[in-house]
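Entry 14. Ran structure prediction on the chain below.
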Amino acid sequence: MTEPAPTNTTAKRRFGGTPAQIRSALGFYKFLAYATGVMLLLVVVEMVAKYGFGAEIIAGGSAGALGLVQEAQVDSAGGFNLSTAVLIVHGWLYVVYLIADFRLWQFMRWPFSQFVIIALGGVVPLLSFIVEKRVHRRVEEELAAHPEARSRY
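Output, C-alpha cells:
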C-alpha cells in the first residue's frame, strides 16, 4: 500500500493587493473610522437634545451663536439647523466609511463576517474607535507575519 502524500498545513497567505495598497486602504479606513465615530457621538448629542428636551440645535438667528430651540419654534428662529446637518453629514460619512471598509476587507481577503463587524463600528457609539484599533493591529500583524504573501496581480 502506498501512503498518502503529506498535506501542507501551512497554506500560503494571499492578499488582494500589494502591501502598499493595503496600508493605503488601512489609512483611509482609519481616518473614516475616527470621523464617523465623532459624527456618531454628535448624533447622540442631537438625539438627546431632540428626544430628551424636545429641541433642535441651532447656530445663529434668535438662538445666538449656538443654542437649543424648541421644535415648534425652529422655523421662526432663523439660523442654521445643526441637528439636521449632523444627521446628513453622518449619513454620508457612513456611506464612505462602508466603502473604506469594503476596500480594506477586499484587500485582506477576510471572511464576510469580518466586513459586517467592521461595518457595525459606524453604527454603535464608541465602537468605531475600538474596532479600528483591533483592525489596524490585525492588518499589521498579518502583513508582518506573511511578507512572502503574493498579491493577486
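The longest helix spans residues 19-53. Will compare against last week's run tomorrow.
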